[in-house]
Amino acid sequence: MDTKTRLILSFVMTAFMVFMVTLIVTLLNLGLRADFALQWLKAYLIAWPIAGFTAFLVMAPARRITDRIVQLTGGKS
Q: What is the Cα 17 distance to its own chain's centre?
């Protein structure tokens, strides 16, 4: 996978994941109050770049580890 594809995949994938996680965690922590949307948006805007960058960095090693686990469990990669 080339760098551009990895970067785009990392940010698209994490955009959806961070959306749901920050939404649920913010709701659980604060409840549905008047400033909920603003607090959730702040959490999302902080978390998404961190998650995207992290996913970009760990995607290649995670693929290798996944391939190794699949091989060890008798699957094909």
A: 5
In angstroms, rounded to a whole number, what is the distance separating the alpha carbons of residues 77 and 20?
30
Q: Can you read off the two tokens belonging to residue 73? A: 């469990």
Q: Angle at which helices 3-30 and 36-72 pack, to 10 degrees?
A: 130
Tokens 């693929």 -> residue: 63
DSSP state of 32: S
List, for residues 6-45, the tens digit of each pLDDT value: 889 999 999 999 999 999 999 999 999 999 999 999 999 9
pTM more than 0.85: no
H-helix or E-strand containing 55?
A: helix 36-72
Three-class secondary structure of residue 68 per DSSP: helix
Count the neighbouring beta carbons within 10 Å of the beta carbon of residue 14. Answer: 21
Q: What does the block give as tokens for 22?
A: 């920050």
